[in-house]
What does this fold into?
Amino acid sequence: MPNAETIFSLANRTVLLTGASGYLGRAMARGLAEAGASVVVSSRDREQAQEIAGQLPVLNEARHVAVAIDHMDPDSIDSGFQAAIDQTGGIDVLVANGHEPTSSDWKSVTAQQFDRQMQNASGYFLLARCLQQHVSSRGGSGSVILLGSMYGVVGSYPEAYEGVANASPVAYHALKGGIVQMTRHLAVYWAESGIRVNCLSPGPFPAPAASQEMVTRLEARSPMKRMGRPEELVGPVVFLASDASSYITGHNLLVDGGWTAW
It folds into this structure.
């Protein structure tokens, strides 16, 4: 029987992480590397991705590379995924973390802006399908991790934003709820082929530039009375990427300090 150290190890596995240059993406990239993975760092800006890849720790035979992927562009997804395979020989895990935001809430969002936000989900699906087809062609197994949000399962908290920050956009809530449901759908279709699909839903994890008043209000609402720290996503993402979660698929793992327990 494998021990705990073995099942959490990502040695000899290659992980493609999109949105790796973001606030949470950088922390997950480092955590995956520290668990022994070779990390394909993806960003719309390949030079930025290359810089991040060069900063990651290298364990044993791991090798970190960079590719450019704009998950809002199907052609970029196809070419970027192929570039990742060409540089590494194969991908075992996908962490779909990229996100193009919108600041328009229900009062002002246009149909075009709403549709554009939904395109984030299209990108996640296309990336996931690339991974599924690639792994199936090799006769192996793989893991897909889609980034959701606590706001994919609960409504917003209007008082946290009123007068100090943009309201949480309705299109974002619809997007993240859809990603949670897409996770379940793909999981049941791909389970027999050895592809696990899970959702990692953080929140709240405000970036340093966020309104301090908004943060204070959110902290008052949280059972733990504080916000999440980027490094607190490392354990969950390594868990879902590794054999430690080998019998888990179709699950939405909430990392929210108890927010959705209310």
Remarks:
- The first strand starts at residue 14 and ends at 17.
